[in-house]
Amino acid sequence: MLPTRWAPRSSPRWRAQRMLWDGAPRQAVLLYACAAVGALAPVVLLVGVGRIVRAAAGDRQATWPWIAVSGAAIGVLLVGDTVRDHVAGIARARLTFALQERLMTALIRPAGIAHLTDQGNLDALAGAKGALTGFQPANAPLTQVALAGDRLGGLAACVLVGAFRWWLGAGLLLVWLAVRRPLRTVITEHVAALGGDAGKIRRAVYFFELATDPAAAPEVRAYGLGRWTVDRLREHWLLAMAAAWSVRARVYRTVALTAGLVVAANLAACWVLADAVAHHRIGLAELAAYFPAIVATSAVGGISTEDIALAWMLASLPDVERLEAGIARSAVPLGGARPVGDLPRRTIRLEGVRFAFGDRPVLDGLDLDIPVGASTAIVGANGAGKTTLIRLLTRLHDPSGGRITVDGTDLADLDPADWQRRCALISQDFARLPFTLADNIGVGASRAALRAAAERAGAADLVAGLPDGWDTPLGVPGGRDLSRGQWQRVALARALYAAEHGARILVLDEPTAWLDAAAEADFHRRFLAMTRGLTTIIVAHRFSTVRRADRIHVLHDGKVAESGDHDTLLALDGRYAAMFTAQAARFAGEATAR
């Protein structure tokens, strides 16, 4: 398990190591042991090869011990790589799960959903998942272990070179340490510049996903949007990369200067080695050991692709805490700890309720009574605030002004999670859960309860038509996908199951939007029987759905403009009557055309 919070002042490198030692301590010990063995075995191999070459020129019997040593070093390298990969796979799985669990906990902890629409949180979430860069933060500590092994191997190579000339080994070590710091600094700055504007990168990623999404493919092609999406991807990507290009000159300059220093140092080392061979101070045996060792010293301070990948991973790691802080800042606190108990019994009342998204008011002084045990319909033009009203009633948001009461008790005083369990909700974008059909309707529910909910929702034929019935996986690779109308029946069955098992308020936001005409007519025939005795709140554009409600409210300009049953509102000849007449005329025209 990852720690709840890392030390706020610690560096990302230290945080990554804390993540490894807290999340996979046994694997950490094994990985560092493998790294140490993998670093020292090549040096042993170099020494062994040198001794073999020397012995081969004289007493051949003396080569056998060194052949055994060299063979053992090769075996250790091969076995060590296998063990390291296996242990790293276990550690990676543990760290990935722990990081995902931490992100999920942060996202689902708030009772409301305001934090899920905050752009800063979305950027931090994408960074924490590695979605913007392709580098998973959970891999950072494993990459650090691998690089630590490389550094140790480079240090051992410096020691081996020092056995030839101590000052040469020390000099190469100092050169590599001197160039490593500026190289790492410019790489860190370059990565920070590349990922600095996560919003622009996320928009570029969106256009890529749009162009490659099978669901969007028909319309992208039908409307000739293919070239347009590619152009938008290029536009937003270039904007995102502008900051990185501004530091390119310094990156190239630093790389050129350090490369010049490294080349000069290695040429000098090779000259010293060649001079020693030319003057017979060392033989071919020593040359076979020292020359590869000079090359291997680069691991002390050289920058590899793993270093660059690590920089990306470490840049993403603080996004975890940034996301948690952003959620704490942007999530609207939903107070209240009072149990809901048997509420509501009489009335849910909205008094002067106001709500706005940013500077845009949606509800402005709305007054509304919702009687318990009756059906209430909410209608209005697009953008009138119908879905916002639903979110307030289910406490996904709290009003910015006014209040909502339940039998006289302020809804803000009630436990939000307890209240939400009393609400069975079908939203416009209903969930398509990647579970079996049974778990999509009710996790752990009995088959009898599932059958009852499916029959009431008109989904019994759907169950019969699936290859494995209730156990058919939906929406996952290897499973079955459903049409939107079928998914809506599943969502309706889920809400009806919840209503039978503790939920007292059924909230339907466009319940028949994806049903065909026959299915919609069947839904209406069943509707009163399905919802009898329930407090039902319906949001719909189709008046064939809302006309059967006990009470209908028309929203306009953030307030209730008209209220009454269907016949009363038609007689009033106001907004409801105008909308109903227009819709009826459209359907009549379509029927005539057919």
From TrEMBL:
Q: Which CDD domains match?
A: ABCC_MRP_Like
Q: Which SMART domains match?
A: AAA (SM00382)
Residue spans crossing the bilayer: 29-50, 62-80, 152-179, 251-274
Entry keyword Nucleotidyltransferase? no
Q: Name one GO molecular function term.
A: ATP binding
PROSITE patterns referenced in this protein's UniProt entry, alphabetically: ABC_TRANSPORTER_2 (PS50893)
Occurrences of domain ABC transporter (ranges) = 348-582
Q: Which UniProt keywords apply?
A: ATP-binding, Membrane, Nucleotide-binding, Transmembrane, Transmembrane helix
> PANTHER family given for it?
ATP-BINDING CASSETTE SUB-FAMILY B, ATP-BINDING CASSETTE SUB-FAMILY B MEMBER 6
Q: What is this protein called?
A: ATP-binding cassette domain-containing protein
Native species of this protein? Actinomadura rayongensis
Q: What is the lineage of its organism?
A: Bacteria, Bacillati, Actinomycetota, Actinomycetes, Streptosporangiales
